Amino acid sequence: MSGVAVTFLPGAVSMTVPNGIDLLEAAASVGLDLSGDCGGQGTCEKCRVRVVEGEVSAPSEAEIAALGPDLAAGWRLACQTRVLGATKVEIGQPISETWRKGALARLSAGARLLDSGIDRSGLDPSGQAFSVAVDIGTTTVVATLLDLGTGRPLATSTATNAQNVYGADVISRITHAIGGERGTAELQEKVIGVINGLLGDLGRRAGVPTAKIRSAAVVGNATMIHLFLGVRPDGLSRAPYEAAFTAGRTVDAGSLGLDLAPSTEVHVLPGIASFLGADTVGVVLATRLAELPGWSLALDIGTNGELVLAGDGRLWACSTAAGPAFEGAQIGDGMRAAAGAIERVSLGPGDRNDKDLHLQVIGGGPPAGICGSGLIDAVAVLLAAGALDASGRLSGPSQPADVPPAIGERVVADPDGPAFILAESGADGRRVRLTQTDIRQLQLGKAAIRAGVQLLLKEVGLEEARLDRILLAGAFGNYIDPTSARRIGLLPNIPLERITPVGNAAGVGAELAALSRTRRREAEELARRIEHVPLAERPEFQSEFIKATRFDYGV
């Protein structure tokens, strides 16, 4: 393929990309973290860009349906728009913000060492060889195809982890795995099937036959890694919660049933402890956390929260069970971050009587529910407006006098207590609301994370004000508003400029390991260096957790 020049504005970030690549992949190749929640299907509409000039592919049916008259103004979906000539593109948010989100996760070329160690004998005359990096999440599996000659990501594909038919959380899957003769095998078959589907998609999109994929690197939490390798996770089901293994492993693709040459080496990164897996090591590897000056805290927030503190030449880590509220589960009108989800909630400017509530819905249109980032925003808005007190109690229909009407008029009495109406008529005609029970679920989740943060800081005698940076990893961390997260007491009260979303850092750690033996050795060294702080053994965790349930904790 011939190369063409693409420039992203504002900021004039330029690169040369293969002719025919889509704009989403072009942006990712230099660390511009455009959102692509729908896996390039053109349905989430979160990768909107405006083509200023240049030659690109004709609008797809998905774009015509999503953008309508905006197409005439140059607006396109980056995942659907292929580059056919020199092109200038304007992204929907300031380039500095987008670059900031991807800068630490998409490292400099110097970090992408190309010492893969593969046997290049038998390759075609071009000498081309490729690797694939896989991040196995409890909810989503992400795979990225890499050129071993240049280190450049060629394509990324995502899919839902099909193990979800046995339960949405790791506890349900562990129970299924150990509950029957074929439980573990069934879960392994599900995830291998998903990965094989992703391999096929990557090969088609990049024009790369699987015979040229010579290696793979895999990260995931401890449960996902056990199930990927077909290892029964009995030790993770009961105290003292010991993993069958934490060391890294290298196995042949053929032994796993992957659609690669049977002898292809699959490198599984090491874990740290039972609930600190290879994904946590991947985050530390990708962010270069151990090398950053001063004190750094990396958070990967989800159903389980993984926290790593680095400073003074040492690394400490802990995990905490945050529950599913951050992913929209166990919330009455909660849902995952998909089309129809309220992802942003804000109260507009103006005096008390002129303020208005604003909702941002993924994909536009009426909301079907609310996802984790919207939930945090909504609670932050209620706190700021005075309709919710620090204990988490939502005022009833009789609101304090200083509560803006845009908020007070939306608080109603429900059979189970007061509720806040986000949308009077949602996608199915029903109200989309936030109940007192929903707020309590968020309190429990945010308290678990914050208590873990505080105990890590206490472990080293560090005041939170001395933190030089907080890195928010993972999909959820990349989308939450740091201002809202700080307002509800989820994050320490440090200046906002010290809080940086870094995207799927675990996946980038897998990419680095796929490209380099040196990085794989570094991952093993990091896993040995990280000191595990088991929160369950800390008697003060419960008292710290209770304090952290308050919305004014540390604010």
How would you describe this structure to a colleague?
- With 555 residues, this protein is an alpha/beta fold.
- Helix content is 30%, strand content 24%.
- It is built from 16 helices and 23 strands.
- It has helices at 23-29, 61-67, 95-103, 170-179, 183-206, 222-229, 253-256, 278-287, 372-385, 405-408, 436-460, 474-479, 482-487, 505-515, 517-529, 541-548, and strands at residues 3-9, 13-18, 48-56, 75-77, 83-91, 130-136, 140-147, 153-160, 213-220, 249-252, 265-268, 296-300, 304-311, 314-321, 341-347, 357-361, 369-370, 411-414, 417-423, 432-435, 469-473, 499-503, 531-532.
- The strands form 5 sheets. Strands 8-7-6-9-11-10 form a 6-stranded mixed sheet, sandwiched between helices. A 6-stranded mixed sheet has the order 22-21-12-13-14-23.
- A hairpin with a 5-residue loop joins strand 7 (140-147) and strand 8 (153-160).
- Helix 4 packs across helix 5, helix 11 (436-460) packs across helix 16 (541-548) and helix 14 (505-515) packs across helix 15.
- The termini are far apart.
Summarize the structure.
The protein is 30% helix and 24% strand.
What attributes does this structure have?
single chain, 555 residues, six-stranded mixed β-sheet, 23 strands
Class by helix and strand content? alpha/beta
Q: Helical residue percent?
A: 25-40%
| Broad shape | globular
The overall average pLDDT, rounded, is 86
Determine Rg (CA atoms, Å).
Answer: 23 Å
How far apart are the first and last residues' alpha carbons, in Å? 54 Å
Which strand-content bin applies to the residues? 15-25%
Query: Could you list the spans in which at least 5 consecutive residues all have pLDDT below 50?
Result: 93-110, 120-125
- Per DSSP E runs of 2 or more residues, the count of β-strands stands at 23
Largest sheet: 6 strands, mixed
